[in-house]
Every structure is written in C-alpha cells, then in structure tokens.
Predict the structure.
Amino acid sequence: MSDKKYSVFISSTFEDLKEEREAVLRAILQHGHFPLGMELWGAANDQQWEIIKRQIDVADYLS
C-alpha cells in the first residue's frame, strides 16, 4: 500500500446531493486522503472564487 496522500476536489451541486457528498467525503477520509470542496471557502466574491479555482488546479483528483 502506498503512503502517498492525495487531495480530491468534490465537485457537484450541494443541496440535492448532500448524502452522496457526505459518503464521498467519508470514503476519502477513511483512505487517509484530503477532501476539498467549494463549501470550505464559499464563493461570495471574486477573491474567494480565485482561491477555489487554485484548489481545483492543484487537486490530484476531481470527483
């Protein structure tokens, strides 16, 4: 088993897929990886959106 840890950006609509997103989040954490998602930063202004886009760019995986 590899010791490498990956970041995974969870991309989906939020309200209608809460249970699914929670299941994916749990799976990522159970495998020792790092979940990322827009809800962690919000998207209220352009500066926050730039942070989100950078996180997407640096994520190892996009789900």
Notes: Residues 18-30 form the longest helix (13 residues).
